[in-house]
């Protein structure tokens, strides 16, 4: 029955997205609506939401894809140097060539240097693999961990709320999703006692093999403390689990009192024996954070302390994939090695990234201000990531009406919101939530004017919705 509910919600969300596309076309054709445009903030896609790409990224890409640009005077010297270096790494000097399955070696080396500088400990390029997005990296690791023929089935402990695509991947592979609940009342904190409860409960239905964590949180925006991360590492070690660390929003930290620290760094600082034995896979991407290059498809995984006996299998598994898209690899290289002070491109790069950061900080302030004033809504503080995840305190009448319509209450809310205002957000039921609670998720990486209009429409709708179902 639970699986059927997942499929129903997936189909309803797909129908909602198709409806948003239809509304856009109608508006383009001059059909009158109560709104002038559709605001789609259902994805963590900053460029879709209106944020501008980073110039340096696009200039390097342009020069690599059309090398004739290198002969002119329109590109800064450091852009030309970077593009020439990258083209020398491509067979035939062309981005149209296949690359190594793990990625262009020079780019993998740049990623290793990035990780080393971030964590203060060496990263071995041999343990880094580039894929078409971090989700592909994660799926490959899950393929290795989840045995579809095992009895009992393999289980993966996953956060609720959490990233729904990963949970779906586990189920498709024949594994079991073992949920652990983040503590909303404590700012979506990950608690060790809840992990222990979830593990005990899971052992009745499966054999847990891994723990999946998302830091910074998606959809919650929570950032784990070092103490929490140490507790997680010890829990994983005690129970002989594999640690999957989804850290794709690591550059999107906008709370001045918060800091992203990688699981690898904390693990290494704990020292032996944990630092030499705990198996960890860490994921990062050029799609998330300030680059926001979702369409280029560039992500990587770093494997830490992988059993040497297993590594040949990992290499065979990863070699089954074709070479990752070169455009995504270039984006990763720029992410790992951005312009530095003194470089010709640095002033513009710094201006653009600081503008994105300040816009995000202001958006977060506005979101919290609006939700503090609105009745029947609450929102935990937002520290990082790309989303707001407010809770809707819906009336019994709204809940009853939604269920009569065959919808989860927050899905019903999202459908009405789109119909009345042209704003597309996602319901919390897509990400998991405690029974009897309802949420919505929307991207906050938007231009300030888009966010202001979104909040205006959402506020007006919410007040009317609560009145209609009082």
Description:
By secondary structure, the protein is an alpha/beta fold. Helix content is 45%, strand content 13%. The protein has three domains: 2-51 and 351-468, Aspartate Aminotransferase, domain 1 (Alpha-Beta Complex), CATH 3.90.1150.10; 53-95, Helix Hairpins (Orthogonal Bundle), CATH 1.10.287.1970; 98-336, 3-Layer(aba) Sandwich (Aspartate Aminotransferase, domain 2). The chain has helices at residues 2-28, 55-65, 77-88, 105-119, 134-145, 164-172, 192-202, 226-238, 263-270, 274-277, 311-319, 326-336, 346-373, 396-404, 409-421, 448-468; strands at residues 39-40, 128-131, 154-160, 176-181, 207-214, 242-246, 280-285, 299-304, 377-378, 387-388, 391-392, 423-424, 426-427, 438-443. The strands form three sheets. It has a seven-stranded mixed beta sheet with strand order 2-8-7-6-5-3-4, sandwiched between helices. α6 links the parallel β3 (154-160) and β4 (176-181). Mean pLDDT is 94; it is low at 1-5.
